[in-house]
Structures are given as structure tokens and as C-alpha cells.
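From the shared-data thread, chain only:
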Amino acid sequence: MRWVSNSRGRRLIAGHHLVFGAYGFWLPNDPRGSYSDFVGSIDLYLAGGAATKTNARHSVANRRRNHTDRLKTKESMLRPPVKFIGIQARAIGHGFEKYFKITGYPVWACAILPNHVHLALGHLPISVERLTIQLKSAATKQMLAEKCHPFGACVEQGRKLPKCFVRGQWSRFLDPEDVAGAIKYVEGNPVRQGLRPQRWRFVKSAPNALV
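Structure, as C-alpha cells:
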């Protein structure tokens, strides 16, 4: 745990709840808000407008939006949205396992879903932004090694490999009293989507004092 300072004074931080998505999961102009500053694709801009920048530190996933309009906007994307299947989720998990074995960073819960990833993590010696980049890289390398990358055919055809993860991430600090709830939420995500519970070898129990 560590202390951080903000406008309200100092607070004790136990960890992080981190979420990042597959390509197409959360568009930069999603009407619920996004953490993007711009829309890089002209077609996507014309279909859905400018970036919907938000500084909210809580999840905006449950904000109301027009589902039909959202699907129409996604039709303007260069490639279909990525939906990870079982072997791809397993490969992503293998990539994470290699990464966390090397770094030793504490992972208390992980859910690899068809279009996004949830992690509950302990104190990190690097920024969440840097960690996210490294995790995406580890997952990508492992999917390529296991020949199950969603856009692997591009490599076989000698073309540049498109990214299968969306830019950026969403994260929030976990106060000590938030840890147990965050772990329960992350662990319950697969079941809420009709999938089997997930067990990953790189996940370790949080300290007893926090749960």
C-alpha cells in the first residue's frame, strides 16, 4: 500500500482496478463518454462524431445510450470488432502469466472476457498506463506464438499486424475497504456473461488484512 495526495489531502491506496478493451469494444466517440482526446479514423468521426472525452473516475458503462446508433457507428470501423474466443483468451492468460512471473507484480483477480479484460492489482512500482501497454504486448506476442491472433492472417500475407486491443485503459485506485468488492466484481464477470468462472495461476490471494 502507499499514500497518494490529491485536492482532498492524503489517502491510503491498496491497489488498482484496471480495465482495457479489445479493438472495437469502446469507441473514442462512445456516447457514454471515453478517455480519448480524438478520433483517429475519419470514417469513424463522420459516423459518430468527435471524441466524447470524460474525466470521470467511476465507470460510465451503465450510462444510457442508443444501442442501434452505436452498432451503426461500429459499421464504419476498418475491421470488425474483436471477439476473443476460448483459445485466444487462454493465450492472453499465458502471456499475462509469463509477464507477472518476471515482474512479480501482485494480481488478485483477473477476468479475460470476449471483448475486454478486468484486473484487480496490488501496489505497482510503475504507472498503470505503462503496465497496460506491457500487458497488451505480452498478450499479443503469446497469441502470435500460439497462432491464434485475431489478425494473424495479415502477418501470413506480409501485411502490418493491426492492433487487437483498443488504445488506453480505464482504472481506479482501490482504497483498502474497496479491495474485497473489486475482487468479487472481477471474479464474477465471466459468470455474469454466461461463461465459466476463470482460474489463472498468476492470480494470488490478497493480504488477509484487505479481504
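The two ends are 14 Å apart (CA to CA).
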